[in-house]
Design a protein that fits this description.
The protein has 142 residues and is of the alpha/beta class. The protein is built from 4 helices and 5 strands. The chain has a single domain, classed as HybD-like (Rossmann fold, 3-Layer(aba) Sandwich), CATH 3.40.50. It has a 5-stranded mixed β-sheet with strand order 2-1-3-5-4. The longest helix is centred in the C-terminal third of the chain and has 15 residues. It starts with a strand and ends with a helix.
Length: 142
């Protein structure tokens, strides 16, 4: 059986950084596949490292800044974010550090990693689109 995780990152106390936590709340309000673990990743960073062990797919949900029009939900591949480290558009520098460090931390095999970026503070429909996209990824739907 597959073991998949959706890790939602953000700060629920700061509206400008709460979109990931809003997606967490949206996902928790739904009934979803038994093989998906939904995680409130808080402020992210190296504390999230244990969630990358013993799983097939990890989807990170976070806010992005200056990447697209407000309300945009974009799928970013882990390799692309790491390759273009200098222009990465997510506000959490610690999360970017974790992503860049993963190949060197002894996780074998590495899970498939994908990032869902939400531009702007996230309104109701934007949050629902991000939640839908995260679930599609862990379910293997293109």
């Amino acid at each position: 059986m597959k073991n998949n995780r959706i890790i939602c990152v953000g700060n629920s106390l700061v509206a400008a950084d709460a979109a990931g936590i809003q997606v967490f709340n949206e996902l928790c309000s739904r009934s979803y596949c038994h093989h998906v673990e939904i995680v409130n990743g808080g402020l992210g960073g190296m504390d999230l490292l244990p969630y990358f062990y013993n799983c097939d797919t990890v989807v990170l949900v976070d806010q992005m800044v200056g990447f697209a029009e407000p309300g945009t939900v974009a799928r970013l591949d882990w390799e692309d974010v790491c390759a273009d480290w200098q222009s990465a558009c997510m506000p959490s520098g610690e999360l970017l550090y974790l992503l860049k460090s993963l190949p060197f931390l002894g996780i074998s095999p590495l899970p498939t990693i994908c990032i869902i970026g939400i531009e702007g503070e996230g309104e109701g429909e934007t949050i629902k689109r991000a939640a839908d996209m995260a679930l599609e990824i862990v379910r293997g739907t293109p």
